Structure formats: structure tokens, C-alpha cells
Amino acid sequence: MATSPKAVPEQETEKSKKKRMRSPAYPYTNLEAAIRRAREFYDREGRNSAPLAVAAKHWGYEPKSSGSNQTAAALMSFGLMQDEGTGEKRKVKLTPNALKILLDTRTDSSEKAALIKQAALAPRIHKQIWDKWGATDVSDDNLRHALLFEWTPPFNENSVAGFISEYRGTIAFAKLTEPDKVTSEDGSNEGASGTAYLPKVGDYVQWESQGVLHFKEPSKILRLSTDGAFAFVEGTSTGLPVEQLRHAEGPSAPLQAQIPRIPLLPTTTMHEDVYSLPEGRIVVQWPATLSAESVQEVKDYLKLLERKIVRSTAKEKEQSE
Fold first, then answer.
1. Taking Cα atoms as reference points, which of 155, 127, 133, 119 lies closest to residue 241?
2. Which class does domain 21-174 fall in?
3. Which one, of 248, 261, 243, 161, lies nearest residue 196 by Cα?
4. 39, 159, 174, 287: most buried, per Cβ within 10 A?
């Protein structure tokens, strides 16, 4: 029987939505329930991939329900599921570790136990809390206080209790003990491991918050804040916390749609000027030798570029207010 999805909050005004504080990303469900969901998917699809809408039916959800998206995101967070493709072509399938957990029927299998512990600490927030307290018997009240006032970013008071319950259930199910130090197989974090993913300008990412993937398709990082804590991506003027970003494959354009790069002449020498701003760098390149006509064209282009920058800046300022 499918677990009921989280209740949808009452509609909010645009102003209240902007002021609402988002908690760090955490799984929608605990690890034990996530493994049950993985089993339900395996019983229907085995090792094959399937569209997310089909997976939703296996879990008892409507194809486009928030519950199905949150469930898939939770399985990915634990490293039990991976996706491929974007938009309508997006599919999901179980990871090798998920298959090892599901298909290992050996009694007291140490390998299976280790994989479950690894999955428990795959979500970044789980790893952070475990590194700080481990198996210490920290009370729920003290944990709640730390998450609300000492964490960066802090938790929303409306979601912290749900996270603590999920975390407690996951740690208990995995039977983690103080000596356990769990890392991913490759030590990396593509949005689903203990080590932080370090985004770079030009990367395509998916934004995951509270177990929900917010982008229909991966978006490209345009710039990072000076402290590296926030990333600005295509389609939004608001900085996104880097800890909530998961690395994703960018769109692959058809060969016929790709624009060939025109090679420079062998004798062409290029000049470059870099101007640094608090928001990032401006880089300008131009050929060392230009005709009078080309110089005039550059001047005209710079005037057009100035108007374009003014318009785009005004638009982003209006959207952020």
C-alpha cells in the first residue's frame, strides 16, 4: 500500500512565498520505506529503466503527483535510484547498490549491512549530523535547537520535526554505531552522497529541496556568489544554496542543430581584457587588427549591449522585489 504523500500546504500569496525559508534538502521518507519503494519498482521493472510516470503507478501515485516526485528524489538521495534524460524523456532505474541490497538474501550479510549504512549517510544532511554527533544520545530538543539556530542554512520550524523523525528512523534501521565511517564508493557527491558537490560555472544542475526536484529540466549555472554559497542558474534571478544542487547531465543538442565554430585565421592575434565585479568577471576579446569599419561596428554593438544589460538588470530586480 502506498504511503500517503505530505499534505499540500494552503495557497500562499506571492509575498509570503518569497519570505518562506527553505530547509536544507532531506529525504521525503526514511531509508526503510525507501528500500520498500525500491522493491516495488524492482518487482515490476527489474533492472530496466522506466518513465517516472510509470514508476508513480508502481508506487500507487498519480503520474504527476508530488508524492511520486518526492519518492523518486528520496531514493536518489539515498543512492538507490538514478535518472537519465530530461523532460518527457526522463526515466529512472535502480542503482547497482540498490540491486545488491534487494537481491542479497544471505543471512547476516556483512556486505548488505555495509551498503545499507552507506545509503543511510548518503544524504548530505545525514552525513553532516552523523559527523557532528555520531551515535551520541543527543535529545530531540537539542537537535531541533541546533538545526533551527546553528545550522547553515537553518531549518524551517515547520519541517524540522519531520526531518528529525526521518533521520532517527534511518539511523536506527541502518544500525549505525559510533565506529561507523561511511563514504560513497567513489567519494563524490552528485547530489546523493556524503561529500559535498562543488558546482562550477557552466555545470548543469537539478535543484533538490526537501526531497523535491524543482526543475523540469537541468539548468545551467551562470555564476556563483563571491563566497561560493549560492549559485545563479538560467531561468531564475534568485541564488540557490549550493548544498541543494545535484549535478545533472545537460541537454544534448542534435548534430544538425549544433552551430559550427568558425576557426580564426592562422595570423589572427587576439587581445583580452578582464574586469572583475562583485557578481563575477567580464571578459572581452577582440582581434588585434581591426579595420575602421569594424571598429565602428564594435562601437555600435557596445551601445546595443549596454541597453540589453540595463533591460535584463531591471527585469531581474523587478522579479526579485
1. 155
2. mainly alpha
3. 243
4. 174
| Residue 232: all three cell numbers together | 545563479
Cα 223 to Cα 51, 215, 280: the distances in Å are: 32, 18, 7
As beta bridge partners, residue 280 has: 277
Say which DSSP state 154 is in: P
Residue showing cell 534501521: 173
Question: Grid coordinates standing for 320?
Answer: 526579485
Per-residue confidence (pLDDT) for residue 167, from 0 to 100:
94
Q: Which residues pair with 93 in a beta bridge?
A: 82
| pLDDT-above-90 percentage for the chain | 31
CA distances from 116 to 38, 59, 172, 173 (A): 13, 21, 11, 9
What is the tens place of the pLDDT at every residue in 114-124? 999 999 999 98
pTM: 0.54
Residue 3 sits at φ, ψ, to 5 deg, of -75, 135
pLDDT, tens digit, 9 for 90 and up, residues 164-189: 999 999 999 999 875 665 444 443 34
Per-residue pLDDT at 91 exceeds 80: yes
